[in-house]
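BUG-444 | component: ligand-complex export | severity: low

The export step for shikimate-3-phosphate jobs runs without errors, but we want the raw record kept on the ticket for reference. Input record follows.
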Amino acid sequence: MSPTPLISRAATALAGEVTVPGDKSISHRALMVAALAVGESSIDGLLEGEDVLRTAAAMRALGALVTRRDDGRWVLFGRGVGGLAEPDDMLDMGNAGTGARLLTGLVATHPFTSFFSGDASLRSRPMRRVIEPLSRMGAGFVGRSGGRLPMAVIGTASPIPISYELPVPSAQVKSAILLAGLNTAGTTTVIERQATRDHTELMLRGFGADVAVEALAHGERVISVKGHPELTGRALKVPADPSSAAFPVVAALLVRDSALTVTGVGTNPLRCGLFLTLREMGADIRWTNSREEGGEPVADLVVRHSALRGVDVPPERAPSMIDEYPILAVAAAFAEGTTRMRGLAELRVKESDRLAAMARGLQACGVRLAIEGDDLVVEGGGIPAGGATIPVNLDHRIAMAFLVMGMAAAAPVAIDDASAIDTSFPGFAALMNGLGAKIGADQA
Ligand code: S3P
């Protein structure tokens, strides 16, 4: 496929009310858990981005009945816990780290072998973090050097329940182990020193699994799942993705005279570190109409253009905003003073090395910054120059962050390829242009 360059020019006041697509994390989990449930499940608001469509295709390949109705509702008939069937071809997970890692857990405790691959970005990402605990449960793995895809997962017929302390704060690793624990007799336990997003725990409980969560001091949690639960099909609604809402929200903060509302956004506290940080920076963001949908808290976000000031973002906040640092770094470039984002080691192993990508891209746009150990330090003050073309390297969030930069920078900002945006936010440019942005094809 040939690349699709885009350019973002200065926007005038962004205004309106929008709904961003469904939450990517919850969408993956909804498909996977519904595929294990007995009977019918229906999902409204599923993110129909590339990443999630790969998971839908994988669940089909594993034997679940997965259909999309004309009204956009997804309907699944699951196979029951332990009932997945051997896929007859490679599971191609595209760009999706979440899809690849969670599914690896799911099939690790089924008595068959599956083969996983993905795009160049996913094939470069570390899988050892799931291979390690899942090997202890009895599964076998044959992958490339460094534990990278393509990889065969040799599922075990007699899984062993484990108690595992996460060496890195990762919801994907936690979830892979919990999903493996479903088809494992006894209790499987994950200990996390820093709380990470708990969508798997909430989703499993919603479908009838016995999941215990013990919160200890300093954000530490002990999460246990009892094996062989009976999961029952249900109807659920996926909230709008706070990680996608982040882009129009920051755009409205940066573009003068903007005022907009983003409706039905997930406000799970383990996902909302960005909004907390932006408020500390002086952002006018209010939550209205707070409610619960499908077992998750949601609200409408009302945001107005605000003068921002630099802040110190503590490392313990990272898990609750891990995907939001690219757009926070853009906001920091427009803030008055220095913003120090601490403890960003995990950003190096995302869809791209986001620490390096942000540093290079911001510097190209005339922003002064430094990487000090695992910290990113951005010097704000004034309007950044812009006027650069940013290489995206198959990373959707880098692409969207720099398009937002172009809306408020002195000169337009271009990206070399917008196609990755569809992994999480199909229709991004059209939605932003509907609010007043000026994103268009870059002929340069
Ligand atoms: C996700 C967890 C995070 C996040 C990713 C989605 C999830 O990854 O970056 O986009 O749905 O569990 P890690 O578990 O690697 O931190």
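Assignee comment: Attached the raw record above. Residues 6-22+239-440 form a domain with the UDP-n-acetylglucosamine1-carboxyvinyl-transferase; Chain fold (CATH 3.65.10.10).
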